[in-house]
Amino acid sequence: MQRAALFRGGDAQMAAGDLGELLVPYMPTIRVPKSGDRVFKTECAFSYDSPDSEGGLYVCMNTFLGFGREHIERHYRKTGQCVYLHLKRHLRQKVPGASGGALPKRRNAKLFLDLEISSDLNSDDFEYEDEAKLVIFPDHYEISLPNIEELPALVTIACDALLSAKSPYRKQEPDSWEEELQASKHAKTLVQLDNGVRIPPSGWKCSKCDLRENLWLNLSDGSVLCGKWFFDGSGGNGHAVEHYRDTGYPLAVKLGTITPDGADVYSFDEEEPVLDPHIAKHLAHFGIDMLQMQVTDNGLRDNDIKPRVSEWEVIQEAGVKLKPMYGPGYTGMKNLGNSCYLNAVMQAIFSIPEFQRAYVGNLPRIFDYSPLDPTQDFNTQMAKLGHGLLSGQYSKPPMKSELIEQVVKEEHKPQHNGISPRMFKAFISKGHPEFSSNRQQDAQEFFLHLINLVERNPVGSENPSDVFRFLVEERTQCCQSRKVRYTDRVDYIMQLPVAMEAATNKDELIAYELKRREAEAARRPLPELVRAKIPFSACLQAFSEPSNVEDFWSSALQAKSAGVKTSRFASFPEYLVVQIKKFTFGLDWIPKKLDVSIDMPDFLDITHLRARGLQPGEEELPDIAPPIVIPDDPKDHMTNHFVESLDIDESSVMQLAEMGFPLEACRKAVYYTGNLGAEVAFNWIIAHMEEPDFAEPLVIPAFGEVASSGAAALGAVGLDNQPPEEMVAIIISMGFQRNVAIQALKATNNNLERALEWIFSHPDPEEESDPALDTMDMENNANANILAETGSEGPRIKDGPGRYELFGFISHMGTSTMSGHYVCHLRKEGRWVIYNDLRVCASERPPKDLGYIYFYHRIPS
């Protein structure tokens, strides 16, 4: 049957009396969704088609997977499944006299849950009509629903259960859909204290802490207090809720949301957002005139836009009229609730040709060879996301108002604007303690998590993540003997420290800080922000300078001594990712962000950072391992379950924590790698990020267990004379073959640092290996395939010149990685484009000096 005939629609209707007989052969394949079954009735497994799409969505009555019209035949051919529930949403013109509303009316509301309403259309003139049919392949017989009298009871029950099933993403998106607000029961009788409080137009801060974001004005006594952490990225210490518990004052309005049309009001007593019909009167009590208030899309008043110094305004280019961009490569992504970090990273990733070719270029092959459940396949979901961003299918200009009536009379074709990466996020975050939550995350940490998944799921002969890989040469020198040791490691990101001491406007910073403190003490509006200006050259210099090695053991002295370490590039990657280390920890271990401006160059030359290896006149440190120190009372020591009593290099822990990794994971990484430094611990983190207990506190096993496992983790010889699996995984994570890792550890008595040196001093290891090792399947070691195996030449690299050109950057707004918002800027077709979740616009003032992660492409020689 030809495709055109297959989808004609109603020309294959069956007589009512034949329905039961028609479905008899297919009854064994029809299932009723049970508790725990995931029903995908809002999104195609291979595309972003939905019931709103022109062809609707086909849901398999056996697997409950959804498929768009372009992909349903693939599933039918692969599985032989014949019965599908076809879901379609139509947009109709309202009949004369139909009541309007805030949103288009749904006639069959119970059929489709969690479907979004298009905001592009006039709700007074149009309404939605939902339609469901059973479709039987390959002849495309259609049975309209409901048809309870004629259908077998099992089919009726299955259809009803499928139509009423909850979204499989509801756990990940609580509160992400809007509901109609109700007037608060306290609004009419709210008591307001006559205490003379007047709220200034700006300069707000919590009266109990220093926070200036997510502030709420209590409508009873005028207190300005911070709220809790919310899914939209705003954060606080919960002082507004504490104040309600102490006083019982029920209503509060969010500062920054007040406009002539209303404001965001929350009822602590009713525990939900509410409407306050008397909001103008309640605000006037504290000197706020609603008619004079106006906010931007970001909750910032127009008066606050000038002089455009807040990073929220500058990075999002607030106050500037931006031209929307549409078409291939200009597709926005919906924020699912603190998923902007994912959106920003994926926009940058799929602007790189190697990733485009690997996933979108191989899309037919990836889809054809996908598993029976493509929602659980990494390559399928990457190809789906890449196609959604690059095809232009979901980035079309909005329909002009004068053409709406004409189009609707024929048959409305909804215009898709952006994609919702719910299925993608659900899969790649599965089992991860941080990314599976609705909390804000570090974009740099997610980038590494994504690279880890790309490495573990090869898509072809070329691994697209190779474009980021490079070798770092570590030169460690004993300060007393002057002898040196050279080691190499694999990395994906160049981390630049912020050289605060090199600020070029120190006098202005000192003057600003004095004015700021005076304004806070006098409760006056804050002065215009002064941001530290840091030369990029100073950050690059700080990167190349030697750093002290804590707890350094010198093999030349065979004792602890002072040591220094420098890092250089043993190879230059095709794409250089530069992270500005803006996030740090205060003395109270609370993450903080350095609000600085760095003059990042459009063209970058780091050729001078090329590694040179052992130089004439340098003498290498002897290849001697440090002695294993056994405590006097090992039982008492090893049975202590508190991390504080362990000998853990806290400086390495801090270095890893500043990268955005969970603190407990950093402690475990340093502990299990024997305090060999942050670089080795970093590779342990990459190898263990997928484990369920990744961020759980470190628990030391009892002494009896340590003899076989704990000691092995510290480098002792195992009882079976096999290298510890932890160390094997770390070396594999650097890009070496498993047999090479085991051979190196055996040759060095399971000393991790010496094993790495052995590998680089033996470029052609012996081919023979323990026969038992050859029979080990990679699946027996979850970490063994994190990085694809390579030849004897060592890690995969794409070396070349060290000259680069900037083509993109990711910026962060907010005070820490636990809150705020991410935006991506990319240079496409000769101009800069801003990707701010669903909004994709031509950039007028790209804030290149305020970025967090920068993407450079190598300039061909």
Automatic annotation (TrEMBL):
Keywords: Autophagy, Cytoplasm, Hydrolase, Isopeptide bond, Metal-binding, Phosphoprotein, Protease, Repeat, Thiol protease, Ubl conjugation, Ubl conjugation pathway, Zinc, Zinc-finger. InterPro entries: Papain-like_cys_pep_sf, Peptidase_C19_UCH, Ub_carboxyl-term_hydrolase, UBA, UBA-like_sf, Ubiquitinyl_hydrolase, UBP13_Znf-UBP_var, USP. One of its GO terms (biological process) is proteolysis. Its main location: cytoplasm. GO terms for molecular function: cysteine-type deubiquitinase activity; zinc ion binding. Pfam families: UBA (PF00627), UCH (PF00443), zf-UBP (PF02148), zf-UBP_var (PF17807). Its EC number is 3.4.19.12. Coiled coil: none annotated. It is an enzyme of class 3 (hydrolase). It catalyses: Thiol-dependent hydrolysis of ester, thioester, amide, peptide and isopeptide bonds formed by the C-terminal Gly of ubiquitin (a 76-residue protein attached to proteins as an intracellular targeting signal). Belongs to the peptidase C19 family. Interacts with UFD1. Interacts (via UBA domains) with SIAH2 (when ubiquitinated). Interacts with BAG6; the interaction is direct and may mediate UBL4A deubiquitination. Interacts (via UBA 2 domain) with AMFR; the interaction is direct. Interacts with UBL4A; may be indirect via BAG6. Interacts with NEDD4. This is Ubiquitin carboxyl-terminal hydrolase. It comes from Geospiza parvula (Small tree-finch).
